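Co-fold these.
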Amino acid sequence: MSDVMNTSLFPPELLRILFTLVCAIVIVFGNAVVMGYLERKLAGRFQRRPGPMEVGWHGILQLAVDGVKLVGKQLIVPKQADKVLYRLAPIISFAPAIMPLVVIPFSPKLQGRDFDVGLLFILAVVAINVLAILVAGWSSNNKYSLLGAMRSVAQNVAYEIPMLLTLLSVILVTGTFSLRGIVEAQSGGAWFIFFMPVAFLIFFAATLAETNRAPFDLPEAESELTAGFMTEFSGMGFSLFFMAEYTYMFIACSLTVILFLGGWSGPPLPYGEYTSALWFFAKVYALLLTMIWIRWTFPRVRFDQLLNFCWKYLVPFSLVHLLVTAVVVKL
Amino acid sequence: MTTMAEKGEHRYVLNMGPQHPSTHGVLRVILEMEGEYVMDPQPVLGYGHRMHEKMAECRSWPNFLPNAARMDYLAALIYNHGYVGVVERLAAIEATPRAEYIRVITSELNRLQSHLLWLGVLVLDLGAFTPIMYTFEDREKILDILEDVTGSRLTYCYMRVGGVVRDIDDKFIERTREYIKWQRSRMPMYDKLVTGNIIFRKRIEEIGEFTPDMARRYGLTGPVLRGTGIPYDIRRAEPYSVYPEFDFDIPTETTGDCMASYLVRVREIEQSLRIIEQALDKLPDGPFMAKVPKKLKLPAGDACYAVESPRGELVYHLTGDGSDTPYRMKIRVPSFSNLSLLPELCSGMLLSDLCACMGSLDLVIPEIDR
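Predicted complex below.
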């Protein structure tokens, strides 16, 4: 019976794809809930107030209530907005966020697919987000949204360059684009952060800008642009952007962990092939907490400063870094 | 169809306000923009207009007391002080010494909470959320102290012609001293978190260059003026109440940018603390209310009384005609003059710098609209 199911009706490959997709969606929603709660709670603690306290124990169900509220809200489409694009924009932003999770190796055995070009796949898919923001800003027919979208494009294009250059340094050493291969190259505690701390810093700064997080959150700068490209979005449109942002943060931190912090490696655990995902998640969330910490501490930079910082410091430094790495590898 | 660019029109109009997070109230600024650059900002006033000056002509002078508190909701006691001051000057009434001391103490507490709110809001305009929560914590302590003695938290109606409504007690003095100690212990934290923050400094240094000449032309007063290097403070230049008896400095800076007015205000916090401390030490005994006739008529004539509000020079000009209703009341508010230089100051600036400039002007819109 099971043979029949496996071969004809449900080939194992299809089951595997389904299982991977379900897992990816669970991770996306789970991460959004955990991050939403953590961000509000931590922001509260940084600001010497308790944060959400009312719904459930220490406000732990606050996100569930917010989710119900957002789902129940009317979707308001502004007059003279480009209605098709306006409705499409949150989906364009959210849908690609799921895909990178397929190639991320959480532990030696927990990985949807190991591509030879896994790293390139992630970078390609994540870049779609810029398009989503541009579409959102353009279709809302609101000047604030458009300003936010324009900023976003300039910022994302600029910061992709130092990001890719630092990636190249890592690739030169490992000689593979496969994420699993990169993690395995760092086995035995030989994490790349120890060999190239500068690259790590540049990469982390670039990810902050790529995910539109403070102090580089110019596309949604509240005090100037009200909410930037999200100004006109309400209800589920808003919450899809919101979840997409948290998912991109998760992906960016996962990439940082894979490239520089040794992926799943850590002290051995029982059933290590599966449970070492714990180390992976611990490292990812440590980075995410750092991002939250930075957001609630620093003011926002100005737009020209943001671009100057990229072109005058990050790009030259990452170029020099790439050069030095290449020479060292050849030697 | 020709596009705007083909016609050579690159400019577009961005309507900022009356509901916008960084206009702090119902101010509307029509911005003519070129990309992200503001080419011509034009403030539009009047959304919060409540005819306070006309109201003064229509009701007896004691009935205007609550109005005074509602013009600038952040400096209600200082507006109280100016109003009772001008009535006293016109009617030739002297407040008791103890009342004058209490007025100074409460006015300075009021100034402190205004400066603390401004500090938080400026940093909020620049995109950092956390400092405003810290300053609100400090501000809450002041509001609690003032609530105990005046009965309200924001729109105080505490001062009366000849004195104040209620005497301050030992508990007030003790709590104020505790507060002074607390505030002093907090200032190093703000220095580290805000003043020393590289992003914050880069955002407001060399932004919005106020010059003494510009200040003269627009009648600029307050910390923004002192940021250009002119030590003009009504508490020194035209002393009122018992201010001459205290030892305090007028902080000035020379650069005239937003950073200068920021530094001036932060240093004024310390000076206000010093004034309160000295006033508490010297507080004389005696009545807190002078003998004032029950039905006081304002004599015919003019009187003028200027006080230093947290935002600059506040002048009440009162004309009496022998009845108990003022013939005319003119109020010169600092924010109005300070805002009027926005078009000249901010032309050619980035949108984010405009927000920083408006934040450092410390605008209170109901005061402008009156």
